[in-house]
Design brief:
This protein is of the alpha+beta class. Helix content is 25%, strand content 33%.
């Protein structure tokens, strides 16, 4: 396995492989960030390009195949996660079948919700920034690597917004990773509007600082609390779906 060290070289390598059977829609926009921290490695041959994004205790697989006969090389005993993004009713069944042939199983499905013109009045009231350590600890305790692209600890950066109780303990945090956001609320504070307040604060800053007008969130269909929250904020479910596959 080769560690990617130069963005331009890796981008050029990608172009040598077709996107007929591929899942690299989900490669983070800032590949340079992964390369900078040495968290992107790859295997390239005549049949396929396999790239691996290192996370805590697992790796995320990105692939471009020249043939569905391509075989994932023997790996160290590290759990793998792969995602497919598609329009509702149009699952790329041949690509899914290839994942199954490589030992992956279907783990979960996420629906995409789109929001515009979000209500942000008074959004920053009571909102503060959380430290790296407390934010990471809270997120890592709430999510598994097959549910969210939580970066490795040494890639984790600041900027998480938080809402705290009177004793200073965290009620909830929202962390912006550039290509997605992670929001979590402590079990004791759920159902009290904490997530909505955090998201409104995040959206207010994104609108002001980046002139961002449209927001996207991936949510598991069984996560009724998050669906209720984003719906109340004005999000609607669109036709883009994401399936998660794991190999242990």
């Amino acid at each position: 396995m080769t560690i990617a060290k130069h963005y331009e070289a890796f981008a050029a390598l990608q172009k040598e492989y077709p996107r007929t059977w591929s899942n690299d829609f989900l490669v983070p926009a800032d590949i340079r960030h992964l390369i900078k921290y040495g968290k992107l490695s790859y295997i390239a041959d005549d049949a396929a390009l396999f790239a691996f994004i290192q996370r805590e205790g697992s790796s995320k697989l990105i692939f471009r195949l020249r043939s569905l006969q391509a075989k994932l090389p023997a790996m160290e005993d590290v759990p793998l996660t792969a995602y497919l993004v598609y329009r509702e009713g149009n699952l790329p069944s041949d690509t899914e079948a290839w994942l199954f042939s490589q030992g992956f199983t279907h783990a979960s499905r996420l629906d995409r919700y789109t929001g515009k013109d979000l209500p942000c009045e008074g959004a920053d009231d009571g909102i503060s920034e959380a430290s790296l350590e407390e934010t990471y600890a809270m997120l890592q305790g709430q999510f598994s690597t097959e549910e969210v692209d939580l970066p490795c600890r040494d890639m984790f950066e600041g900027g998480a917004l938080s809402l705290r109780a009177e004793d200073g303990s965290l009620l909830g945090v929202i962390y912006d990773m550039g290509h997605t956001r992670i929001t979590t609320v402590s079990p004791a504070a759920r159902g009290q509007g904490v997530g909505a307040r955090l998201y409104r604060a995040y959206a207010a800053r994104a609108i002001k600082d980046k002139d961002q007008q449209t927001f996207y969130e991936w949510i598991r269909p069984s996560n009724v609390a998050s669906i209720a929250m984003v719906t109340k904020l004005g999000f609607t479910r669109d036709t883009l779906l994401m399936d998660c596959y794991t190999r242990r």
